[in-house]
Fold this protein.
Amino acid sequence: MRIAILEDDPDQLALLRRWLADAGHDVHGYVAGREAMKHAGRESFDLFILDWQVPDVSGAEVLTWLRANVSKHVPILFITVRDSEEDVVYALENGADDYMVKPARRQEMQARVSALLRRAYPREEQTLLSFPPFEIDTQRGEIRRAGSRIELTPKEFELAVVLFRNIGRLMSRGHLQELVWGRSGDLATRTVDTHVSQVRKKLDLRPETGYRVVPIYNYGYRLEHLGTDASAA
């Protein structure tokens, strides 16, 4: 999963990044509120971890901004020294999903992150996915439409799985790149676009067949379900 951390203490940020990277996540760290907001507006993330007391814009203000401008559903976890009941209540009532008081403990933090991700993205735990007329078997690496296997390259298959698991959600190109190709800095953006085009073509993802891939200029893509497969009408 792709996680953004707002934390102005370099040592604490490095520690949290290492813990989450060891658990298999792609982690992006930010030391100031406006920096985190800028990147959150340009990229998609699966979870945000916020400190409260950071330079320029507080974590509480970032929380409000994320809920108003980015997503009402992406999980947000506070890890902060502020431990009053009023602060905890304020954060939870304004959109935070969980709250931890520093010093964070590794196993507890990883367990809380895993719990938030399981609730927000339940399909990540499934190996057999059904999006009629498509059936996806992630163990066998196959996508079938009405029983017929669709020939895809390994990367096309991975990309299709990511899009279907996040159906209806806007995914940035950088997010898709990390999930499918890893954090390869030399991968051209055009590679993502080309593979999305191939997936759209091979799966016949268009309004007439019930699904469409919507490109968002200078951002990324969203797979939308429009209704029953038109061919059955």
